[in-house]
Amino acid sequence: MDALTNDFVEVYVHQEAKKGNQISGDMYYLHAADDYFICAIADGLGNGPIARLSAEVIPKMLERHHHETVDELLLRCNEQMSGKRGAAVAIVKMYYQEKKVEYSCVGNVRFYMMQQQGTMVYPLPVMGYLSGRKQNLKKQTFNYSEGSRFVLHSDGVALKSPKAAFMQTASTYELFENVRRSAKQDDDSTFIVGSLLQ
Ligand SMILES: [Mn+2]
User: Ligand 1 centre from 162 Cα, in Å?
Assistant: First the structure.
């Protein structure tokens, strides 16, 4: 388990390779800057080392350019995909002062956020994957409030009722444990669970 906590966010990450594989074809990235938190999951096409080759582009690009918008980052990642198989990628950026979430995704990585008042935000997935070819992006923005919690997961997690997972858990770590029970054995599984503390 990987984790990150500061004055603004509490975050836990779980990653597991497909049963029988040593190497996960999913990769993730987490970073807390002074005024924002950014995280991402990339699911490389295929599995094992070949999938990893595509997915590892994402943390590399984000490490260098995380100050850019989520769409600028996706375009950079897309450019790096030519000659590789490709990857499904979602990037989330949370700005502490504005209490604003920026989200953009291509492919089957899902994001859910529950506001304190019980309202769910669940942007619909954009079909396809980053392949190096021209890609239309559709950044979405929404607000969060103190206590909002979120889940970002690859398709190796089958979360049957995201809303129930939020409702049935009080703490961020409890939610993390709940989501872990939905990790599948037959695919690489990666998820990031977090809450906004102020
Ligand atoms: Mn997958």
Answer: 18
